Amino acid sequence: MSSLNISPQTPRxxxxxxxxxxxxxxxxxxxxTGVQGGMANIDSAGPVTLQLTRDCALIPNxxxxxxxxVMPDGTLKVLTSxxxxxxxxxxxxxxxxxxxxxxxxxxxxx
Amino acid sequence: MSYGGDYNQGGGGGGGGFYAGSQGGxxxxxxxxxxxxxxSSETLRPVTIKQILEARQExxxxxFMIDSVxxxxxTFVGRVQGVTEQATNITYVLDxxxxxxxxxxxxxADSPSDESAQNLNDKYVRVxxxxxxxxxKRHVGAHRIRAVEDYNEVQYHFLETVAxxxxxxxxxxxxxxxxxxxxxxxxxxxxxxxxTSSTSRLPPGLSDNxxxxxxxxxxxxxNEGIHVNVVKMKSGVPDxxxxxxxxxxxxxxxxxxxxxxxxxxxxxxx
Lengths: 110, 270
What we know:
heterodimer, A: mainly beta, CATH 2.40.50.140, 1 helix, single-stranded DNA binding (chain A)
């Protein structure tokens, strides 16, 4: 999974933030709930639909970290993804998203 | 409310304290300003790559500062985007979502690593090192770099980074500043008991500096309010922390600006 043209900053968001980040490249952590064909679903404080690229290796029920572009329809077009194993604490992932935006001076330029 | 407060006033740095803050031992040592430099440069500070890229030098060749506190050792996490191996050093390009940064590790010819650096490609690593600048390009010289086995360590790192940033810019949270109250003090906050009765209108979780400044503002009755410099002087909150403390109080709506942006009066909630 090479890192093609990833913008230098990828704010961490979850399902609740998709609408605000249309057309931006973001980073999402969630639990893989289903993979079928070119699409997948993850749960990141709510459902997120992923449009996969050909070499995505998502493992159902594991955590995944995904970098992608938020499309106008609210789906995420995946640029890169990584498997995070089965032991991701999703409540912390939610807290990370919260502090990312609450104290964004530490994480990204607005 | 003695201990963290006195430290902030005496040390002048306000900051540095975080590392020592929750461990009384270090903090109890004499805190003259001449020892600030050493203490600060002996700390290990968790940061994001964005913070590293934005670190400033107050004088040309001086130490790097983040949140007005001198950087010593720093630690951060990132995913390895590329590895370049040379005769004397290995350069890793790291990305943590907040920016990208070169990390250089010197090769110790006497104890060659048994693992290829290329194995770290595309993995999260934790770096411990120091910020360097060479012909205007920044890199971190790594003392240690290792793969992160558990993703939760990455998440933990970001929370720790935020906690340190808030501590250095806003002062310690209240429950760590009371001599005996501890956690209990926070629990009774809503009831307005204990030594916080005079500030019982304030919500829990407010920084100590904001609380100290509010104490100076709350009894102001003049229509024009009180000037921020008077509040700073009376509360002893250092300049570089005062703005954040005021912003906190404004955001909460417990104070408001009067005739200009430098005068504040308490919101009458009763």
